[in-house]
Amino acid sequence: MPLLMMPVSCGNPFRDSLATDLDTKPSQYQQGKVCRQFADFLNTDLSAGGADYRGTEAQTFFDKPIEWTTTCLPSTTDGIAGTLQVINPRSKGTVEPTDKNFQATQGFDEKVWLADGNKFRTQVGSWVVEMRISTENIKTPSGTLSMTNEQTRQAVDFVIGVAREVQG
Q: pLDDT tens digit string along 78-104?
């Protein structure tokens, strides 16, 4: 099952609601790199199937820096496999989730929130990373994906790693 990647950049939904921190810097981390990492995570850690990057390499924005925000939407033949959103809301302090289903979770080196439906969120510095795994669209060798505790931990580690890399 090939994964097709579509990075999307569509503004900053937090900009009007928070105090702006003018000391934050845009990220030079490449949109394509973070989207490839997401597909690799889905394929390797969650056994989603082989990634297919054909067509994405030619997209001019794929190798451009994230700057303030990007979204990755890898797809399988069954639909969107997940969503990874990387945002710098340019705000001071902790950016609380707008989705009230997210619950703060202890036991990690960074701020982490989890929500039902395989949703993961972290904040490292001024960078917020949210990920949703659409398990219903991920077929593994043993059937439709049902995330284990170990895979949940790997998902949290993945979003923390992305946030740290983008933060720089």
A: 888 889 999 998 877 888 898 999 999
Dist. CA 98–CA 32, nearest whole Å: 26
Distance CA 8, CA 88 (A): 15
CA distance 108 to 36: 25
Report if residue 95 sits inside a domain.
yes
pTM: 0.82
Q: Cα–Cα distance between 81 and 139 in angstroms, integer? A: 10
pLDDT in tens, 32-79: 889 889 988 988 888 776 544 433 443 556 778 888 888 888 877 788
Residue 2 lies in a domain: no
Strands 65-67 and 69-72: unpaired
Classify residue 42 by its DSSP letter: H
Q: Are 155 and 118 in contact (CB under 8 A)?
A: yes
Number of domains composing the chain: 1
Examine residue 67 and state whether it is found in any structural domain, yes or no: yes
Is residue 1 a part of any domain in this protein? no
Query: What's the domain range around 46?
Result: 7-167
- Residue 109 CB burial class (10 angstroms; 0-12, 13-18, ≥19): exposed
